[in-house]
Sequence to fold (662 residues):
Amino acid sequence: MTTIRKPTRRDVLKYGAAAAATTALCTPYVSRAWAETVEINMLAWYGHGEPDMVGAFEAANNVKFKPKYYAGGDNMMALIAQSPPGTYDIILSDGEFVQQLNAAGYIEEMNAADYPFDDMLYDDFKQFPGHWKDGKLYSMMVRCGHLGVSYNTTAVSDEEAMSYKAFWKPEIKGKVGHFDWHLPNLGQMSLTNGNGAKLWDQDEAGWTKIKETTMTLRPQVGGYFDYGGTFNGLKNGEMMAMAGIGDWITGVLERDGAPVKSLVPKEGGIQWTESYSIGKGTQKADMVKKFIQYMLSPEGQATSARMLAYPGFAITKGGRAKLNEVDPKEAQRTGQVDGMPNDPITLIKEGRIFYRDIPKQQSLEDWNEFWQEYKNA
Amino acid sequence: MTTKHAKNTDYYAIAWRLPLIVWQGLFFIGPLVFMVAMSFFLVRNYRMEAAFQFGNWERMLTRGFFWDAYFLTLWLALLATIVTSVLAFPASYFLAFKASDTVRRWAVFFLIIPFFTSYLVRIFAWQVILAQQGVINAGFSFLGLGPYQMLNTTLGTMVGYLTLCLPLAVILQTFSLANIDKRLVEAAHNLGCGRLRTVFTVVVPLAKTGLVVAAVFCFILSFGDFVAPYYLGGSKPPTLSIMIVDTSKSGQQWPRAAVVAIMMIVTLLVVAFTAIGFAYRKRRT
Fold:
């Protein structure tokens, strides 16, 4: 039988000294390895700092992303305003909020020569509104998506979904949900009123009409949800149609086989646009630039298009080609194949897509206040 | 006569009280004062600026949607308090008067267990149970009934409130009823008082303080709860706690959110002090 010898005081001293020496000898190397990992503080919508998006870049460049997530442009502006300058190295913002970021001095100027403008799928993307000021670049568009009518295919037909009127369908009373953010929802109501390209630029009479149209939808509404609630509402069949969203949510469910989808109706759809900016005062501008370049590379674009949290469209030719190569099924599902009738670029060219913006003749506060009134109606 | 000894005793007592006073000062009075001050601040370009103006109060208190949310929240909290108190009482009565000591100990243990799990997790579990394709509707479908809409309704909100309050109400009521002198109940019976009459004329008045305290806890917890009305009620319509989140999210309007919060605190103080005053009011002889 093997017996375990009780360690003597000499053993303890001997092995203890060896352990201490090993630790002391290794510490410089371990510390150096740790020190070399660059931490990048990211402010973004949920999912952008997750391993599926940044894992490959982290591994290749020995960096670690520390994401802080927000929901909605107002929320993003508030988070930056509360933080000292230089807190965020990289900021992902909705396209329409870039001009506010720039006006407040929260972002650095970027060098246009560093980015693949020649590879853009559409000319508008090269000079996206608000991204340039006085000929200087301040933000780089990386992805986009379209908002329209999102619905459960067992309750709403494709034909019905070709109009926002589908939300008023009597059979789905109490089963229409809202993504709880005034901007996309009221934008869709403006489109319902036939405002087309002027959807954000409405005078008092137009704004009153938007409010009236929105109020008529109230009896149909089953709830107001955040991202998770919207997702669950569609998934468990509680909600049969959802306003204020698009494929960025239904796409995740559709990929899993749920009977939901999104269409751009005849009144037009709204494009959400996401852009990266370099945070003012960052000490890691070079690494951030490298990351934005990666996200605009074919690999980065294909990764972004298949983002687990919510899919988006590739905006470069190289990105689209890569997506078709690595995931033709997803490219087909989202229409990101040249020549498809629902190709997002074709929809933009046909004038059926309008870029999301902020209200021109009212304040965001007016819109938000009405949204609260609507929720309480 | 004031002696040196008496003075020393005072310092001793103060020393014991000091941590609580400091704690309350730092983490209750301090933030409360700041919140009141903040309700007069301004917001410019998503940044709060110290100021003294009544714009936030005027803006919130003159809006119909604020008062709609206020009275809805008040009504829902009141309803939750009544439903919880009524549902809890028979269980508490049984545990206090009928159950053996062993049963009572186990029952209290099982009533405490829900608090081991996060309230939010329990609410998400209710989403699965109450959904159209959930457990309850699956049961109804076996009987050829349903499906019924339970999620994103007032019923859903109420289920959430009960999840939060019911175990606590049963525990508080049980402790209160268990402390009643049983001889008084026996005396009522010996004098010919029926069982139901004994409950309402002897048991309830004797346990009044505990019953009211349990009800006040229900009201406070329900009135300020965000999770149940948002995740089970579908935020339709929003309660005051949801309005605080909405207001602070949009345009960094913390000062206006502070107005809503102060109105909630004032309401809770009025309700709590009125209820406690009622609980400790001596019976007329």
User: Anything to note?
Assistant: The domain at 57-280 of chain B is CATH 1.10.3720.10 (MetI-like fold). Chain B has one domain: 57-280.
